[in-house]
Amino acid sequence: MSTAPLIPSDLKRGREVVLTLEAFADRGKSLARVAGPDGGRGYVVFVPGAVPGDRVRARVIKRKKGFAEARLLEVLEGSDLRTEPRCEYFDACGGCKWQHVQYPAQLAMKGEAAVSALTRAGLDLGAADVRPPMGAADHDGSGGVYFYRNKMEFSFSAMRWLTDWEIASGEAHDKDFALGLHVPGRFDKVLDLKACYLQSEWSARLVNGVRAFAKRHHWAPLHPREHSGYLKILGLRTPAHTDDKMVNLVTSHYDEERMAAFADFLKADFPEVTTLVNTINSGVAQTAYGEAVHTIFGPGLVRDRIGPHTFEIASNAFFQTNTVAAEVLYAVAKDFASLQPTDVVYDLYCGAGTISLFVADAVEKVVGVELVEEAVENARASAEANGVDNCTFVAGDMLELFKPELIDEHGRPDVLIVDPPRAGMHPKVVGQIAHLRPERIVYVSCNPQTQARDLAMLQEAAAYTIEAVQPVDMFPHTHHVESVVGLRLA
Fold first, then answer.
1. Among residues 322, 351, 332, which one has the least CA distance to residue 478?
2. Which of 63, 141, 191, 330 is deepest in the core (most CB within 10 A)?
3. Distance CA 335, CA 353 (A)
4. Which CA distances in Å does 167 have to 33, 94, 364, 430?
5. What span, in angstroms and rounded, lies between the C-alpha atoms of 33 and 14?
6. d(CA 409, CA 416)
7. Is the separation of the CB atoms in 118 and 452 below 8 Å?
8. What is the reported pLDDT for 199?
9. Is 446 a catalytic residue?
10. What is the CA radius of gyration of the chain?
C-alpha cells in the first residue's frame, strides 16, 4: 500500500487506505484530513468506530465533493483514548457505540460538540459562563457509566443476526428466534443478547428467562418480512428511586390463556415484577405502542421520583430514561432561570410536566404547554398527586396555542423554559417568543444543532444575551448530549 500523502482523487470507492484520525466528528464518528487540490488539508474522511489518534486501515465506501466516508478494517496503531469495550456484542450492536472510548474523552467531546454548535451558528459566547460538561460522576457520585437506563425495549425476531464470534465458534445456533436489539441499519435482524449493560443486571436475567420461557412454549416471534408471529417487544421499566418493576409484553393479539401462563412464570421466577401489562399491536410496525393495553396483574404503572415529586408512569408514557441525570439536568435549568417567588413561568413542550413540577416551588405560577393529550393528563394527575396547585397544563399544537389569547388567560411570562423534540422549534414559535420578549429564557435541548439554529433566529429578532451554557451527559457511550442555555433580555 502506498505511503505517499493521500489526495481526494485517491479516495475511490472500494479502495483501501491508511488514515490517521485527528478529531471527533458529528454523530460519534472520527475524522482524518487529506491534502486538498490547493495543497491544504481541508478534505475530510469520516471513519465510524475509529478514535482520534488511531492509525487505521479503512475502505472507502462513499466519496463526495467535500468529504468521504470509510469503513474501519483494522487498527494499526491504537489511540491513547481507546479502551477495551465491556460488552461482548459491542462490534455488532448499536446501543453503546463509544464503549471503546475512555469516558473522560467521551465527555470532553460532548462538551465540545455542544459549544461548537453554538459558535458555528454565529452565537457570541464571549461573556457567557461556558461550563465544563457534567458527566456520570456528577449524576450519581460513583462515576458509573453503565446500567443507567430505567426503560428498555427488546425486540423479538424470527431473523437472528449472528456475530462474527458466534459464527467462528462453529456451534449450531437457532437462527429462527432472537430477543435483543436490532443491528444498526437493519429493521429485520436482531442480536440475541445474553447480556446488556444499559439497564440492570436484573433486566438482563429477565430477558434470558423470557427467551427460554417463550421457546419452551413454542411462542412464535415476529417475522419482520412475513409480518407473522405472536411476540413483538419485551418492554421493561425499572425506576431509579422505587422498587417498582414493569414488564410490558407487546404481542400481535390478546391471548388470555398465554398471558395467564406468562404471569405465573413471572410470579414464580421473577417475583420482583410488580406489574405486567400486555400491549396489543396488530399492525405491521414493531413498536411498543398499540391499540389496546391489558393490565394482567399489578397497578399497570410504576412510580419514580425526580426531586421531591413522585410520578406515576404507564407503559406508554414518556419519562426521562436516565432518572438521576434528569435531576441534574433540571437543577441546571432551574439555576439558569434565576427564579423569583413572583415569577410566572411558561414550560413549552412540557411533556408529562416533570420540569414544571420541579420548578413550581420557587415561583408563583407555571403554565405547561404540550401537544400530546395523554402527557398532559399525566402531568395534571402528577400535580394533583403531589399536592402542587400552582401548575396549569394546556394541550394543543404550539403554533396554535402560543398566541396572545394564551397570554391574556394565564398572564405574561417572566421566564420561558423550552425543551423541544430533536427537530427543535418551528420558526413561527421562535418568532412568537421574540415578539413576547420574556425577561429570561432557558433552552434545554437534546440536539445542539437545532438548538443553535433556533437561538440564532431568536437573537436576530430580539436582543437576548447568552448568560450560561451547560452540557450534560445523560447517555454515556453514545454521541448524544443535552445542552442547557440560559438567556436574558438585554
1. 322
2. 191
3. 18
4. 36, 19, 63, 53
5. 18
6. 16
7. yes
8. 95
9. yes
10. 25
Cell numbers of 14, please?
472500494
> Where are any strands of DSSP class E within 239-384?
246-251, 275-280, 292-297, 301-306, 309-314, 344-348, 365-370
pLDDT of residue 111: 95
Name which of 108, 240, 260 is nearest 249 in CA terms.
260
In this structure, are residues 79 and 47 in contact, taking their beta carbons and an 8 Å threshold? no
DSSP 223: B
**Residues 120, 29: Cα–Cα separation, whole Å:** 19
* Cα-based distances in Å from 279 to 224, 232, 292, 324: 18, 10, 6, 28
| Beta strands across the sheet bearing 440-445 | 129-130, 464-472, 482-489, 440-445, 415-418, 344-348, 365-370, 391-395
pLDDT tens per residue, range 412-468: 999 999 999 999 999 999 999 999 999 999 999 999 999 999 999 999 999 999 999
Helix, coil or strand: residue 292: strand
Torsion of CA 183, 286, 294, 254, to 10 degrees: -110
In angstroms, the CA 403 to CA 186 distance is 43
Compute the distance between CA of residue 352 and CA of residue 24 in angstroms, rounded to an integer: 35
Residue 7 clears pLDDT 80, i.e. is over it: no
Beginning with the edge strand found earlier in the chain, give each strand of the sheet holding 160-161 in spatial order. Answer: 160-161, 190-192, 178-182, 151-157, 231-237, 246-251, 275-280, 292-297
The confidence band for 117, taking pLDDT boundaries of 50, 70 and 90, is: very high
Q: With 60 as the cut, is the pLDDT of residue 38 above it?
A: no
Q: Which of 7-16, 155-164, 224-233 has the lowest mean pLDDT?
A: 7-16
Q: What is the number of residues in the chain? A: 490
* Per-residue CA distances from 127 to 30, 123, 130, 466, 468 (Å): 31, 11, 9, 8, 9
Instruction: Give the number of other CB atoms < 10 A from CB of residue 168.
Output: 9
d(CA 277, CA 255): 13
Least Cα distance to 15 among 57, 78, 47, 60 occurs for 60
What are the strands of the beta sheet with 23-24, ordered from one edge? 16-20, 55-63, 67-77, 43-48, 29-34, 23-24
Among candidate residues 430, 441, 455, 433, the one with its CA nearest the CA of residue 114 = 455
Distance CA 394, CA 401 (A): 9
d(CA 450, CA 456): 10
Q: Is the pTM of this model over 0.70?
A: yes
Residue with cell 412464535: 220
Percent helix, percent strand, percent coil in the chain, to nearest 5: 30, 30, 45
